[in-house]
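We modelled the chain as a single entity of 533 amino acids. Its sequence is:
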Amino acid sequence: MILTALPPAPVFDATAGPRLALPDVQPAAGIQQIVDLADQIQRHQFPILGATIEAGPHIRWRRDYSRGIETGLAYFRLIPYLDTERAGDHKLIWELNRHQHLIVLAQAYRLTGDRRRLQELQAQLESWMADNPFHRGTNWASALEVAFRALSWIWVDHFVGLEMPPEFRARWLHMLYLHGCHLANNLSFYFSPNNHLVGEALVLHALGLFFQGYPRAAKWQQLGARVMQEQMDRQIRNDGSSFEQSTYYQRYLLDMFLLHAVLARPGAEFLAKLERMAEFLHAIAGPSGRLPLLGDDDGGHLPLGGIERPPGAGNCESRLFPDAGIAVMTCRGNHAIVDAGPFGALHSGHSHSDTLSIILSSGDDEILIDPGTYTYTGDPKWRDWFRGSRAHNTICIDGLDQAVMAGPFRWNNPPAVRVLDWKTNSARDVLEAECRYAGFTHRRRVEFQKPGTFLISDHVEGPPGEHDIEQFWHLGSLAARSQVILPADAELTTSWHSTTFGEKHASPMLRVHRRAPLPLCLETRIILNRAPE
């Protein structure tokens, strides 16, 4: 159904003080960095996903500036936002429309008293409201994007709402209220009931608190709180991991659930799971504190997601997270992650074909890396490469991935994965697991002889005849080559690494190739801190 009339507008008191008790958050950057970034924003130069958008004097909010593609003001459900050729890259468009840069202008004003920041902020909001009427255009097509923009606006009002002209603030609050109306009727119960639904419910609950006493607000608050509790139960497993099997999205979810805990004061069970989420990320990150990117990474973040997270439990130690199927092997600054888990839930939209892969670091040095994500719909060829088996430290059989790609956010026929053995003690850790797909079985055994030697055995079984078996080792640097001991015919070649969504650069990779009948075994040794030969 297409709405032809706006919901009735309450009369907002534009002179009222802060409407929501938000937590105190220290700016992630220093004062001068915030001021410099605000200067850049005032010039309409927006750092977005590894690039800088030069928007010119008039910001075109529905435009993909990198491709020169802009969509019109059709009803939001009619916008083909997943078709990059027709609508542009929605990630690039929506990232600007999250309005997190407006928080920077608000912070710069609070820090310096420079009213030019406030004037620019108001001008951009006026421009956005004029160019994006309710339910019209691409910036209403994703409920999560509506939610993130609303959360940015709540923060802006928190910082500078009382400094705005009352007439303008009343109109702007009405548009914010319409964001709540949209969310209440478009929560992602069916299309993306994953991190999208959590982000939307978080903000719907916050809007219910923000507009307390106004029509619909109590229902928003109740619905948002109920969905947050349901999704904590559904999406976060007993070992603290997320059912999407993506470490980046787990960090996203932790920030979302943590902000909700500050606003809603949930019960002990909710808080206990929140603590386990933090413990999981703490263990995965290891001594360096650098989070390895298993699965997708979209480059986004929760506005002002700098609320202090639970620290996790004590020092890092080796352990298996049974629900995630992820083993952590660690000793004296040497830290490995072995992914022996299944593809994620809900068609595995944010999973990569990386089962049985290994990520390894020694102190601050990255030895074996995950390549990252780089893009979603912006370039289908690169989307497929970065999530395919060849992009990960695992085995590729006959050029096949471990499941069948069925679009940018879907895998069909996911593999059957199970952990066969796990042992840990002061001298060594051992993980053995297998991945079955397309009639083949890849079994990997990883033995960590503490403090710094890894023995990796790959055993591949399958149908009769010769098969192409490729083993890949993506290196953190050329210096890491000396740590990995492979057969003499191993090939050193060039691969790709994306540390930030939208950016990629060349990186070294080792490849072992065999054309042979099955079964086949490959042996690898990694000796950390080994001097080059």
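As a brief sanity check on the tokenised model: Residues 107 and 113 are 10 Å apart (CA to CA). The longest strand covers residues 505-517.
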